Amino acid sequence: MSKYKEAKYRTIYEARDGELQELENKAKNDFWKPNYHIHPEYGLLNDPNGLAYYKGKYRLFHQWYPFGTIHGMKHWAQLESTDLVNWERVGVGITPTETYESHGAYSGTSIEIDEKLYLYYTGNIKLDKVNRSANQCLAIMNKNGEIEKYKNNPIILGTPDGYTGHVRDPKVFKKDNEFYMILGAQRIDETGAFIMYKSKDALEWEFLGELAIKGFIEKSGYMWECPDYINIDGRDILIFSPQGIDIEEEKYNNLFNVVYMIGELDLANLEFKVESYDEFDAGFDFYAPQSFKDKEGRSLLFAWAGMGEFKYPTDKNLWANCLTFPRELTIKDNRLYQLPAKELSLLRKDEEIINEKVNGIKKFENNNNSYELELDIKTLNSKNFGLNLLVSDKEKLTLSFDKKNKKVVLDRSNLIHKIAEEFGQQRKVKLDISDEINIKILVDNSIVEIFINNGEKVFTSRVFPLNNSKNIEIFSEDDIEYSYRKYNLKKSI
Asked: Is the pTM value of this prediction over 0.90?
């Protein structure tokens, strides 16, 4: 049992009289709050947790610290939806009140077993200011949506020999009538790894050992977080968030990054045989993604649109971060493609369609920053073209295409409110730019998600425009033809 405690390790049950209402009042009128992306009413949001379609509803939890914008005592905030876009907040699913979770209910996943939803998570233990331990824990939701912690928690006590206290974020799945758990881990030599457990009943767990990754360049970093496993069309996919990996030209330029691997999970030999891998998202603010299968068998994913301990302009109003819009994952040409879930169309209103040619700059007057924009561009003779978002006479966000050098650049250096300047203000990807380009963009007050060529490349970034920075521009050094379709989107949360 840890006796180490700081003020930031309070639960909501320890809030002072009126404190939570004061926090809500402070945060509620911030114009950077998203209209259709999940965000906290107040406090800090990070990793999505426990995603599932269960008993007729989409279930979503996320890491939440209620008392400010630091990473303190993490709870599991809970939301539910029948359509993936209109979300109802239904309180807190897991509050860390027990000694086995004395410093937070950290991230995890869910799986339906015997008509109940099993929620696996890490009980964080701070032994002192430096040392820590971790327990793996279970809570169970019944068909009425009621959640109780498992009476024999923790289901895995402490960490195995050879690993530090940084063992967390269980991903549980079933294969060949047995249950498996992958955990992110740190070896004693401070390098990242995955470890695995096996169970016949999803309650009693046997340690298997370390999952070998065959075919991944050994730039492992110092910690692997948030392992996620999913099978799409018979292909195994491993998604994870390695900390401390080396920059590789345009890739892995953020403080922390996300990698996906396509291959084969060989449980008999405890190996993942990698056939291809890549950076998951090329933007500035994307971390801790988690996938799940829905009622249609689609592979859907949410991620935290945030990064580490960065300071954001919303901190002054005591709220921080949001989740991405749900994405559907598919595989094409041994690569992972991502697009917004089709339910996005339920939010559309005020359609605007324009088809024309431009040479120079074409400006579109716009009155809000909560919209969906789709462009189909015929590049014709132009080698350099792109668009500006969040445009005013003081700032803009630029997405540019360099056909000759096969490069796409997202540049937020011309925005007034800058974030994490030490990590640069441009993100780039290599792309064979053909004669036709498709671009889908979601803008929602303080987040921009950009999907290029039907989700072949994706940029997710937080932005904090001035209140009047709302216009859109298309630019080209030579003639291009384009189809411009824009929809304002309804508020849904």
From this structure: yes
